[in-house]
Structure formats: structure tokens, C-alpha cells
Amino acid sequence: MITFPETAAAAPAGGRRARLRRAAAQVLLTNWTGAATVPSRALYPHQWSWDSAFVALGLRHISPRRAQRELETLLGAQWGDGRVPHIVFNPAVPAGAYFPGPDFWRSAAAGRGAGAPPAVHTSGIVQPPVHALAAWQVHLADPAESRRRGFLPRLYPRLAAWHRYLAGARDLAGGGLAAVVHPWEPGLDNSPVWDAALARVEPAPPGSFTRTDLDHSPAADRPTDLDYARYVRLATSYRDHAYDDARTPHGFAVEDPCFNALLIASEHALASIARAVGADPGVHLRRAEAATAALVDRLWDPAGGVFLARDLATGAPIPGYSVSGLVPLIVPGLPADVAAGLVRTLHGPRFGLGRVHLVPSYDLTAAQFDGNRYWRGPSWFNTAWLIHRGLVRHGEHEAAGRLREQTLTAAHRSRFAEYLEPYTGDGRGIRNFSWTAALALDLLHTHAGEGPAR
């Protein structure tokens, strides 16, 4: 049994709550560039896509206008085909500070046919679509300021184009779900779920690239060199095929449950945005309903009580219990029996909710579990936030309240670590990580076991 140094009853409150708020706000202030928030000044010195959505969710509690700016900056780098790139590069950062940098992606040239912006350097792949969900919550934080600045009318067409891209060009199997074409796209970079699909990818030659991540984090916490060589090969192939989804011979193509669950939740948010700007919400609600049916039909494993990713190269579900398979708890309208199965799995031995720290990223009982190595087992704050939201949605208020208090305590105690070892609760990766601070701020404004305070 894991014991926690601070129980729910002793979690940050009063003076500790105020200290946590100040410390989290200071992280976001330190990581602010003037237009956007970097995940970390050291390891991640540019703007990341889903990071910025999570950052905006926290920023709305201390500066709604800056939260709006966060999303506006990201969407200002959107491509003509609708994709929102996973990195927007800061030209003030030295070229060698991060790999793969703008010289690798060559977005303006290689992505010209897909409408890459000519004056802003970006990557060519994407990340999970949390943006409409974040935009709607940012609007609700200060509707008067949002209306004064025309925030939603300006963002709505961009968000709608982003969703059209995912529902169209990325429905590679024609089954109604968006596919990811690189392990960085679903955000769970080196999850054991990807091992078999990645094993088919020929690695980039040794010496053809230089990793910079190991300058900031121990090798034992990061993806292996072989993983990285395969990541580079996949990104190179996509770039050399002009980031054309139809023409690229994708060595990795997967329907991921977390990615699609976030797209569905964001379609519901986009319907709310559409109503607010006088547009038709029906297209978003119909797409959300169809995608929910496809998610359950294609990815739900009733025997395992979890959603499984589907490998489009084989057409088969990928075995393995990942936190990605639990995130669909956030989906509005998820069938009750499916939600109940997810809750049972979450509390069971594979994820041990309440018996370990937060929610591990991979099955605690599996041979591949590694509590220190990136997405092969550690607990992450963003997935804890998503699962908290899902538990609230499905009436699991007691479990949600406990997870909320654990998350607040762990964020403060770990100095806003990137992620945690789930058994010990030790902070791993980078400290003063932006989404950890931002989501702690959001949970501070959420009553225990309830949704966001209004």
C-alpha cells in the first residue's frame, strides 16, 4: 500500500493553497516569452501545441487575456490545410538548442503545398486536439473581455478548419476516426503500445542526428537512441513527401483512443463556440456523435475494460493497457456500460487509482512497465487532469476528489515536475514544467469532486 505524505484532508488549503497558487503562477510567468508559454526554458524552449492548450486552461484563472493570447499565437501558425503544428519555433532560440529544429522540418519549403506559413517555422506533425475545449473554457473565464476582443469569432474558423483536417485528411482508414502518423502525435511518445509498430520502421542511420534532450534529462528517463532513430526516420519520410497525408507511405499509422477522445470532447466545445458566434452547432454535434460511435465500435475492448489503439498496417487492435485507453472517460455521451468498465479498470491492479501516485501511463502489472522512463509507466499531470474530468462527468465524485487532492499535493511537492514515478511519487524529468503548473491552477479553482468552478 502506498502512503501519501499529505492526505486529502491535509491537501493544500488556506496558506498552502495560496503558496501553491503563487508558485504555479511564477512558473508560467518565468516560461512566458511575450507571445506564448514554453513548456520548459531548458528542454523545450519553443511553443508546443497541446501544452499551450493546457497552459491556457490554467492561465485563464490569473489572466484570461493572456490565456487568449496563448491560443491565438499557436493558431496563428496554422497551415492552410487546417493542421495545427505540434511545435511553433521561436526564432530567438539558437538553432542547435533543440532537435529536431526548424532546419530539420523545413516547413516553409516542404510544407508549401499543404499551406505552411512562409514566415513562421513549425514542425509538420500535430498533437492531440485539446484546443477548442481550452478556447471555450478561456472564454467562460471572462466573457466580457472575450467579446470585447472578438476572441471566439476569430478562433472559430481556425478551430473548425483544424477539426475538418483531422476528420478528413487524417481518417486514413475511412472508419470515422483520425489517425496519427508519428508517435509524437498522440503525445505518448515511447509508450510500449507503439513497440510492435515501431519495430517495422527502419531506424535513421547512427550519427545522422544529434539528440539534445539528453543534455537536460538522464538517459534512463528518456526514449532510447533506437526509439529516436525511428522517430527521425518517420519524420524525414513525412517531410520528404511534402507532409502529404495521402501520398506519404506511412510507416506508422494508428488510431489512438486518447487523440480521438479529445477530438470528440473538442467537437462538443466547438458546438458551444459555434452557438456563441451565431454559427450552426449541428455539424460539430453530428461529427461528435459519429466519432463516439466509431470510437466504441473500433477501439473498445469490453473484455479488458479499456480502449485499445488500432494499428492500421495490420488492421488489428494493439494489445496493452495504456492511460490513453482510459482518457475516453471525458467523452460526453459515452455509453454507461463502457464508462463503468473504464472506472473498474482504473481502480484495478493495472492502474491502481488511489494506491499509487496519480495514474500511471502504462499497466503496472506488465513486463514493459518502467516507472521512470517517459511514457512507459510514469504518471503525468495532464492525463491525471483529463481522467479527473472524466470521473466527474460520470458521477465518480469521491474518486475524482481524491485524484484532485493527490495532483495538487504532488505538483507542489515535486516543484511542478514533468511527471512522477508512480510508486514513490518522486518527480522525474524537468521541474517547473508549464502544464503541471497550469493544471494545478485549474484544479485549485475546481471544488473537490466537482467540475470547474463558475
Structure commentary:
The protein has 454 residues and is mainly alpha-helical. The chain has one domain (8-444): Alpha/alpha barrel (Glycosyltransferase), CATH 1.50.10.10. Helix content is 43%, strand content 4%. The strands form 4 sheets. The protein has a 3-stranded antiparallel β-sheet with strand order 3-6-7. Strands 8-9-10 form a 3-stranded antiparallel β-sheet. A two-stranded antiparallel sheet has the order 1-2. Residues 1-12 have low confidence and may be disordered.
In terms of topology, how is this protein built?
Elements: H1 15-30, E1 47-48, H2 49-59, H3 64-75, E2 87-88, H4 102-105, H5 107-110, H6 131-141, H7 143-149, H8 151-168, H9 195-199, H10 225-240, E3 254-255, H11 257-277, H12 282-299, E4 300-301, E5 306-307, E6 310-311, E7 316-317, H13 336-347, E8 379-380, H14 381-393, H15 397-413, E9 419-420, E10 427-428, H16 434-444
Antiparallel strand pairs: 1-2, 3-6, 4-5, 6-7, 8-9, 9-10
Helix pairs in contact: 1-16, 2-3, 2-6, 2-16, 3-6, 6-7, 6-8, 6-11, 8-11, 11-12, 14-15, 15-16
Keywords: Glycosidase, Hydrolase
Family: Belongs to the glycosyl hydrolase 63 family.
Domain Mannosylglycerate hydrolase MGH1-like glycoside hydrolase: 44-436
